[in-house]
Each structure stands twice: as C-alpha cells, then as structure tokens.
Design a protein that fits this description.
Length: about 450
C-alpha cells in the first residue's frame, strides 16, 4: 500500500516530520518497505528559461538554445521538436544522471555536430516524472527560474510504501492509516462526514439480490449528463504518485475512493445496461469478457453481477467490458456493494484475476462504507464532471457484527509488563473507534465495523 505525506494530512492534523511519521508507523505495527522522496531523486533538476532557440547550422532537427539557468546563461543543443524561445523547461547540468535514459551527462561540455552543449533540457519521461516523451517538458511560464523540478511538477511529496498484513484491511485506505497513527500519538485524526446525496429523481436502474449469501448489500445511483473528462490535477497527481495511471474522471474517482477510504466501487455506462442489475450466482457454461479484454469461465459458486443480457461482472473482482465507461459516457451508474470475502477469494483464485477490488474484498471491506462510499463518489463526480444525481437504490442489509469482545485492562501489565494507565487505554481505544462498556475489572468492547481482526 502506497500513500503520500500530503494525502495523509487530509486525515490527520500533525506537525510530525516524515521521520516522526515513519517511527509512529512502526509503533502502530505498520511495516514500512520503502520511502521515495522525489525531492531527493530530482534534486539536480531545476526550472530554466529558454531565451533563444536558433536552427543548428549543421543539423535540420536540432536547435541551439540560449538558456537562463541557476548556473547562469548556458548554450544547450536540443533535439526536441517543441524547443522554442520563451518556454519554461527543466534543466539538467553537466554530470547529471538522467534516470529515464540510464546514463550520466559528461562532466565537460561536448560538441554536438560541431556546436558545444552545456547540459540538457529534459522531458518528464527522461527524469521518470511522467510519461510525456514527445518533447521537453513545457512548464507554466509563471514558475520561477531555479525552482526544483519536483516542486514545479507537483511531485515534492514523499511516497511511503508499507506492507499490509492480511488481518488489517482497514489499512488499505489512507483514512485507516491516519486513524491508527493518530491513536499512536502522531496527531489528531480528522473525521470526514460524508454528505448524504438525496437525489432529485428516482433511480431508473433496479437492483435485485438473488444471492444474499454472496452479496448481502448493494447500493447504487445514477448520474445523468456527466462530462467524463480528465480528473482534477490534484487527484491525478495522487494517483500517479502511488502508481495508478489516470484514465478519466469516472475511473479515477472510483480508484481514488478505493485508495482513500478502502472502499472499492464500480462504474457502469448506464446506456449499456439492459434491465435489472442483479447479484446472483453463476450459471453453467456462462462466460464473461472482462474489462481487461480477457474471457473468463464463470463457476456456479461465483458471485455474478448481471443484467437482462447476462453476466456483466464478477462481484468484488472485476467488471465486464460490455458495460464499461468510456470518454463518451454521459450517464453513469455507480455500484457500491459488499461481497463475501471467502467467495471473492475463491473466484479470484479460480479465474486468476488479480485486481485492487479483489485484494480489498477478500480481506474484508467495511460494510458500513457502502452508502458513504457511494455518496463520496457521487459528490466528486458531480463536483468535477457535473450531472444530475438520482436517489440511491439500496438492496439488502449490512451483515450483523459479532458479539462484544471482553477485555481485562489488568492483562496489559500481566501479559506484556507494560504500565499503561487506564485513562490512556481508554483514549487509545476510543481513537481506534471502539465502543467501551466499563464493567469494573472487565471492559466490553464493540469493535468498529472496519476491524475484521476483532
């Protein structure tokens, strides 16, 4: 699981440094695997200003550029087709290692077709900060000379990668990480109450549960007239930072909610749906062409999402190609359901599908997040893509929680040797959202819905 430091700050108010956060993660039981700081990786690259870009005297595709840099005025020979006077670009001084090309510039100026070049101007792909390789990075002219490239590209944000243990699926969302860090003393947890979307018309998509043992609850709503363009820059930057390539507003919102709240969603092009959307078990001989373009055999014990035409998805695993959203989608139906973890895991193993949805559902997704996750997605979609939202359709009910857990505070000292005050134990448990019923020597704890390990 990856997240950025600024993303974490959406959910925790803290003055802690990166080192403090890492120490607190270890204290909370989160094993950090890697920390990538683009500010360090890209420290050699800075913003420059191209003052002149003249044709090379001996090469039609090269330009001789006069460039203002942090190191003074430099002459740089550039082969990028977009090199021009007046542009703001990224400068690499002599001797710099170019990660995307896996070589270092010479430490002394070198002649390119007879003209000396004192450094390089780079594309985002060449510095491994993006995929654009058609020319050198063309930055906003308002960015000051000498600005670090990481800052100019919106990448001045450490990325933390840690191992999620199978019993803690709540750590598969940045919100869950922040909750535990706050309880461990890293700061104050910031709760985000999701505004309920009431909707202005009845949802025309009917939902039916024919296999409640596989899908006990299914919430959905329609957004009409949405513009499925690019997602906002801040969302794209966060997704890219954790290794997710932005696609479109609708796809990015579902990915973002999954990463932020550990709540997988699915978006259907409503114009492609035929009749009632049903959660049922698979049928003999049934197949699904999934959004990865592959065809899968459906077993009779698998949870299938279907419409009147047949299977359109494997519940909790992957959606189907026939109802996938595209850039042309204007009406979208958002699914926020709860799928049985064991059945999801078996379906994933049988099909060989490895998806973020499967990874979360087979470990356990907070059933209470069905409606909140739907409302959050609807709010983001309408904020950045417009459209009109229907009233939600909700079928089924949330599975009941297990009985309370009996906890003896005296056992902390007896079993661990740690001297923890009763008031501190109570604060930590409340920060972790446990309900506490004090009965003297024993406390009865009701675990929150997202804690499947209790």
């Amino acid at each position: 699981m990856k997240f950025t430091l600024s993303w974490l700050s959406d959910h925790i108010a803290s003055k802690a440094t990166l080192e403090d956060i890492l120490a607190c993660m270890l204290k909370a039981g989160l094993e950090v695997e890697d920390v990538q700081d683009p500010r360090e990786t890209l420290k050699a690259f800075t913003v420059c200003k191209v003052l002149e870009a003249e044709p090379h005297p001996d090469a039609d595709k090269l330009r001789v550029c006069k460039v203002e840099t942090v190191d003074g005025m430099k002459q740089i020979v550039c082969g990028a087709p977009n090199a021009r006077a007046g542009m703001t670009a990224i400068y690499a001084p002599l001797g710099t290692y170019i990660p995307g090309l896996d070589f270092a510039l010479d430490k002394k100026p070198r002649k390119i077709r007879g003209v000396e070049s004192h450094g390089m101007m780079c594309s985002t792909k060449e510095i491994e900060a993006g995929e654009d390789h058609d020319g050198i990075a063309d930055l906003d002219a308002a960015i000051p000379l000498g600005t670090p490239a990481a800052e100019a590209l919106g990448l001045a944000d450490p990325v933390i990668d840690f191992e999620v243990t199978p019993n803690r699926p709540d750590w598969l969302g940045v919100q869950g990480i922040a909750r535990d860090l706050a309880a461990a003393g890293a700061g104050r947890f910031i709760p985000h109450d999701v505004k309920k979307i009431s909707g202005s018309f009845d949802c025309p998509v009917e939902i039916r549960l024919d296999a409640p043992e596989a899908c006990p609850m299914f919430a959905g709503a329609l957004v009409k007239g949405v513009k499925n363009g690019p997602s906002p820059d801040w969302m794209q930057q966060r997704l890219k930072a954790v290794g997710i390539q932005p696609r479109s507003l609708l796809v990015d919102v579902t990915n973002y909610v999954s990463l932020d709240r550990a709540r997988p969603l699915h978006a259907y092009d409503a114009a492609k749906l035929q009749g009632t959307v049903t959660a049922r078990l698979g049928r003999k001989g049934e197949k699904l062409v999934a959004i990865d373009g592959k065809t899968y055999d459906i077993g009779e014990e698998m949870c299938v999402i279907a419409d009147d035409s047949g299977a359109i998805g494997l519940g909790g695993v992957m959606g189907g190609e026939s109802t996938a959203v595209s850039d042309e989608t204007t009406d979208v139906f958002i699914e926020s359901a709860w799928f049985d973890p064991l059945r999801t895991a078996r379906t994933g193993r049988a099909t060989g599908i490895h998806s973020d949805a499967r990874y979360r559902f087979e470990r356990g997704v907070d059933p209470q997040s069905c409606v909140d996750g739907l409302n959050l997605a609807l709010a983001l979609i309408t904020e950045f893509g417009g459209g009109t939202v229907s009233k939600p359709n909700v079928a089924g009910m949330i599975p009941a929680r297990a009985d309370k857990v009996t906890f003896y505070p005296a056992d902390v000292d007896r079993l661990t040797g740690l001297k923890v005050k009763s008031a501190d134990m109570r604060r930590i448990l409340k920060d972790l959202e446990f309900a506490i019923e004090d009965a003297g020597e024993a406390w009865y704890l009701m675990p929150p819905s997202f804690r499947f390990d209790m």
